[in-house]
């Protein structure tokens, strides 16, 4: 395949620098550069915030926060005090101890960051929940993790089925005029009274940090546990891949409900002592460009769907804003189309650097570094210290240009440490006790660049968000009119994929547009807005295996007018 390489950005680092780092690269060494060296113990919140608050960076801005109603700025020193206060609130009013799960179900706001860091200071494992989750999704996560505490708002609390969650002891509410009870705590009021001093819990490298739930093609969402030592890789990649420097203003557009919003929306940038912008509220092209101009953003980490939406808003809009401060732009979550790279080169005069990784990997793995030539359509190369390969289903490495499973040699610092309550699932990720198998298919070219081809399973990537078809199908089956449901990702020029559902109705129900709207609303309310099918097609019967499993690959073939392949396992 012939591809045109964009020129390498001029800068003070280049591939030979990386090669040097890689040569004597030693994770323990990186580890020692963090302050755990003396005790061998650490706390991710200390490394992220307090270390800077106790240095000459003390009065440097850590957080620039903005939404439609608020505009606030917090230094590293402020963040230390606010997270200490939050830790004191939790210590006083909950039974949280090291290793207990505390969930945060909040829209982006400064309080989300205070609460998250405060909980980490206590040694709690934090489970961040995306604000769009509805009752079913919230229940699955809190029940599986046996969370003791949830921090949320009075509005979002309506989606927390408190009565069905026996382990949930305390609800910390962020809002106005909260009526406190034994089990209900008014966060704002308690924060005012709490001390800004806190003796944090020192932890081991393998102690828990963050629990992110993510979707597979079967079963309920699974809890991917990351541990304290993950911050080594967050820190290294913040330097190598995000290329964060002393005076950067960094903006990651991801919500902390997803892994990008914690690894690179909290840990990476703040470990590196960088000033970070957080924008609350929903996506709008105007507000986004305005944010870059207003804060003078220099390093920007976003996703292909967002870039495509900005592209769709037209270059005329961009001309109203000054985005000339941007010097390094990165993308994650879905394939970065060459058209988007071309658009970035034209309108921002910037290369867009793709990064490939997953919730399970915890941090960036295969990337377009600033020093590499960009081959549009390729994800780049593994970061130093990581070995990636294409392997067959037996774990044998395949030669260049052969498509297969994208795999990583296990043992990188930010690798997940368990699937909560599900050791079999965890084991099923590995082949030959050597390879972590990603579930993505790809090939490698002769220069060692990796090219994404697709998911091997049926997981849907819509607007960069990972949705398991099984969860959506289960929700659809709860609708009184539906007897069978099969869900696939349908290619979409803006969102990457959209969710399409094929459903069979009960015999006495007639298909109609109202019914489609009703079903969409049902999934939106029960699961999450982004999980609702944008398209619904009625069928008399769905293709199933003899064992009764819906054959999504046949649905996909119907949709794309492709041959359906081997149908030997299909029922008559
Ligand atoms: C960080 C994150 C992981 C899945 C992954 C893959 C897709 C991520 C990509 C990409 C093509 C890239 N993906 N980065 N596909 N190019 N640069 O997104 O985690 O939500 O767990 O999704 O996303 O399919 O397996 P997560």
Automatic annotation (TrEMBL):
<dbReference type="GO" id="GO:0006085">
    <property type="term" value="P:acetyl-CoA biosynthetic process"/>
</dbReference>
<keyword id="KW-0067">ATP-binding</keyword>
<dbReference type="Pfam" id="PF00501">
    <property type="entry name" value="AMP-binding"/>
</dbReference>
<protein>
    <recommendedName>
        <fullName>acetate--CoA ligase</fullName>
        <ecNumber>6.2.1.1</ecNumber>
    </recommendedName>
</protein>
<keyword id="KW-0007">Acetylation</keyword>
<dbReference type="GO" id="GO:0003987">
    <property type="term" value="F:acetate-CoA ligase activity"/>
</dbReference>
<keyword id="KW-0547">Nucleotide-binding</keyword>
<keyword id="KW-0436">Ligase</keyword>
<dbReference type="InterPro" id="IPR045851">
    <property type="entry name" value="AMP-bd_C_sf"/>
</dbReference>
<dbReference type="GO" id="GO:0005829">
    <property type="term" value="C:cytosol"/>
</dbReference>
<dbReference type="InterPro" id="IPR025110">
    <property type="entry name" value="AMP-bd_C"/>
</dbReference>
<comment type="similarity">
    <text>Belongs to the ATP-dependent AMP-binding enzyme family.</text>
</comment>
<dbReference type="InterPro" id="IPR042099">
    <property type="entry name" value="ANL_N_sf"/>
</dbReference>
<feature type="domain" description="AMP-binding enzyme C-terminal">
    <location>
        <begin position="471"/>
        <end position="549"/>
    </location>
</feature>
<feature type="domain" description="AMP-dependent synthetase/ligase">
    <location>
        <begin position="51"/>
        <end position="409"/>
    </location>
</feature>
<dbReference type="Pfam" id="PF13193">
    <property type="entry name" value="AMP-binding_C"/>
</dbReference>
<dbReference type="InterPro" id="IPR000873">
    <property type="entry name" value="AMP-dep_synth/lig_dom"/>
</dbReference>
<dbReference type="InterPro" id="IPR020845">
    <property type="entry name" value="AMP-binding_CS"/>
</dbReference>
<dbReference type="GO" id="GO:0005524">
    <property type="term" value="F:ATP binding"/>
</dbReference>
């Amino acid at each position: 395949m012939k591809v045109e390489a964009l020129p390498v950005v001029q800068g003070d680092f280049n591939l030979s620098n990386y090669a040097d780092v890689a040569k004597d690269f030693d994770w323990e060494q990186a580890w020692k550069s963090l302050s755990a060296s003396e005790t061998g113990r650490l706390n991710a919140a200390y490394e992220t915030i307090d270390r800077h608050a106790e240095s000459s960076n003390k009065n440097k801005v850590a957080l620039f926060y903005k939404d439609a109603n608020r505009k606030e700025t917090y230094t590293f020193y402020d963040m230390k005090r606010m997270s200490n206060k939050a830790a004191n609130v939790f210590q006083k009013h909950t039974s949280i101890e090291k290793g207990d799960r505390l969930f945060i179900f909040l829209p982006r706001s400064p309080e989300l960051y205070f609460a998250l860091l405060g909980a980490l200071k206590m040694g709690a494992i934090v489970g961040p929940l995306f604000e769009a989750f509805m009752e079913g999704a919230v229940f699955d996560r809190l029940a599986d993790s046996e969370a003791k505490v949830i921090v949320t708002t009075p509005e979002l609390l309506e989606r927390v089925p408190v009565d069905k969650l026996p382990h949930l002891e305390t609800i910390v509410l962020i809002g106005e005029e909260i009526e406190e009870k034994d089990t209900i705590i008014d966060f704002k009021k308690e924060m005012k009274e709490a001390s800004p001093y806190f003796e944090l819990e020192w932890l081991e490298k393998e102690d828990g940090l963050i629990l992110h739930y993510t979707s597979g093609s079967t079963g309920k969402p699974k809890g991917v546990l990351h541990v304290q030592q993950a911050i080594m890789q967050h820190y290294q990649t913040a330097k190598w891949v995000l290329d964060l420097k002393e005076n950067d203003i960094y903006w990651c557009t991801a919500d902390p409900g997803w892994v990008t919003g914690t690894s690179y929306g909290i840990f990476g940038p703040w470990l590196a002592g960088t000033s970070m912008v957080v924008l609350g509220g929903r996506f709008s092209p105007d507000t986004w460009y305005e944010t870059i101009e207003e804060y003078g953003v220099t390093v920007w980490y976003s996703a292909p769907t967002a870039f495509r939406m900005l592209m769709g808003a037209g270059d005329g809009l961009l001309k109203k804003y000054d985005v000339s401060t941007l010097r390094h732009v990165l993308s994650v979550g879905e394939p970065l189309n060459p058209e988007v790279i071309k658009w970035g080169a034209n309108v921002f005069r910037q290369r867009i650097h793709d990064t490939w990784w997953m919730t399970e990997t915890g941090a960036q793995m295969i990337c377009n570094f600033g020093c590499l030539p960009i081959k549009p359509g390729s994800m780049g190369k593994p970061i130093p210290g990581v070995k990636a390969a294409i392997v067959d289903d037996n774990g044998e490495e395949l030669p260049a240009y052969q498509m297969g499973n994208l795999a990583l040699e296990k043992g990188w610092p930010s690798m997940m440490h368990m699937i909560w309550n599900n050791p079999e699932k965890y084991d099923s990720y590995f082949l030959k006790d050597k390879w972590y198998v990603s579930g993505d298919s790809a090939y490698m070219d002769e220069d060692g660049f990796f090219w994404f081809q697709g998911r091997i399973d049926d997981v849907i990537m819509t607007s960069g968000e990972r949705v398991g078809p099984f969860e959506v199908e289960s929700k659809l089956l709860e609708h009184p009119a539906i007897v069978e449901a099969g869900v696939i990702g349908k290619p979409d020029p803006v969102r990457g994929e959209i969710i399409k559902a094929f459903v069979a109705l009960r015999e006495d129900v007639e298909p109609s547009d109202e019914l489609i709207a009703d079903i969409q609303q049902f999934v939106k309310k029960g699961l999450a807005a982004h999980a609702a099918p944008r398209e619904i097609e009625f069928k008399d019967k769905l293709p199933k295996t003899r064992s009764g499993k819906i054959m999504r690959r046949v649905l996909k073939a119907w949709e794309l007018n492709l041959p359906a392949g081997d149908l030997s396992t299909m029922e008559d």
